[in-house]
Backbone:
């Protein structure tokens, strides 16, 4: 007897509305089970949350890993953790390609640092905001490919925090592109940090749900 | 299942309408690939039963099986092929259409 007996009941049986409905519900249940085993929601939420807390609280300039590389590395970390999970549980990474997301974040961040953009940006607070928006857009892509509304909503919140940082950070002292010795506005740094903390909490809650499923 | 053509039920493909094979295809679509033990434990099948279902799907060109070793442990990974993904989409579409009619 399998755990998906409703699927089995349809072998040669007469079709009824209930049978078909149950079969489709079983398909949806299987999809949820696979995603839970992949940790498809908790891993990205936790890693991106830690990334935002890290740079939001610690600051972008004094960090041992330069901010341009921190975000792409976070997406590589999501991929690596998912591969580790694949090896342990036997369920693949799924449809989402975190390495493509990593490349997108890296290129978009580098683009922001090009001269035509830096002339508009003028303050490092705006750079922090754009960096946060880029991460949000990348996570929106991941959530859309995975058809995960929670990831998409989380990503939109990250992007909104980025927009806030762009607006609030406009008054920051301009040192671009001469030096990277920037002093960021504490307000928007804190907003980025709090957003990261919210993502970490959501990630922990998701992890608990994934473990509890089935 | 033998109604006139045009009825959604007539679009069902016997090979994957079989519930265990349909479940295998759904898992592979979601996970991209899964190993033998994961499929076995998730679906509650025996080694022999799962092996027969996988062989049937592989023969139809719907999935690919990659047998190898991790350390000393043999490990078989199953991957959904594009032909299999298309067949699964057709099947699920037919199921939904049938459901719409029954409603």
Residues:
């Amino acid at each position: 007897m399998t755990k998906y007996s409703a699927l089995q009941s349809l072998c040669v049986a007469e079709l009824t509305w209930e049978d078909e409905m149950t079969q489709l519900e079983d398909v949806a249940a299987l999809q949820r089970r696979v995603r839970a085993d992949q940790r498809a929601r908790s891993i990205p939420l936790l890693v991106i949350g830690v990334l935002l807390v890290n740079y939001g609280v610690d600051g972008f300039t004094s960090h041992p890993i330069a901010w341009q590389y921190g975000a792409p590395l976070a997406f590589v970390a999501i991929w690596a953790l998912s591969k580790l999970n694949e090896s342990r549980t036997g369920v693949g990474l799924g449809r989402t390609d975190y390495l493509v997301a990593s490349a997108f974040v890296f290129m978009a961040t580098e683009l922001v640092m090009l001269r035509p953009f830096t002339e508009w940006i003028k303050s490092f607070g705006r750079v922090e905001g754009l960096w946060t928006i880029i991460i949000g857009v990348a996570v929106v892509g991941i959530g859309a490919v995975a058809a995960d509304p929670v990831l998409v909503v989380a990503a939109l919140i990250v992007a909104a925090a980025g927009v806030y940082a762009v607006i609030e950070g406009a008054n920051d002292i301009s040192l671009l592109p001469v030096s990277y010795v920037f002093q960021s506005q504490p307000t928007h740094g804190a907003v980025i940090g709090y957003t990261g903390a919210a993502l970490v909490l959501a990630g922990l809650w998701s992890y608990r749900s994934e473990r509890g499923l089935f | 299942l033998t109604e006139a053509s045009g009825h959604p039920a007539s679009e069902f493909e016997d090979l994957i309408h079989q519930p265990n094979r349909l479940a295998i295809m759904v898992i592979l679509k979601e996970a991209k690939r899964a190993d033998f033990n994961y499929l076995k434990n998730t679906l509650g099948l025996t080694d022999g039963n799962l092996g027969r279902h996988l062989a049937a799907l592989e023969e139809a060109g719907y999935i690919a099986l990659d047998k190898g070793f991790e350390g000393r442990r043999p490990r078989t990974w199953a991957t959904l092929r594009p032909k299999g993904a298309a067949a699964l989409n057709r099947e699920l579409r037919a199921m939904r259409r049938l459901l719409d009619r029954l409603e």
About this structure: Chain A touches chain B at residues 1-4, 7-11, 15-17, 20-21, 23-24, 26-27, 30-31, 33-35, 37-38, 87, 89-95 (CB under 8 Å). Confidence is low (pLDDT under 50) at residues 1-6, 8-13, 174-185 of chain A. The first helix of chain A runs from residue 5 to 8. Residues 15 and 68 of chain A are 57 Å apart (CA to CA).
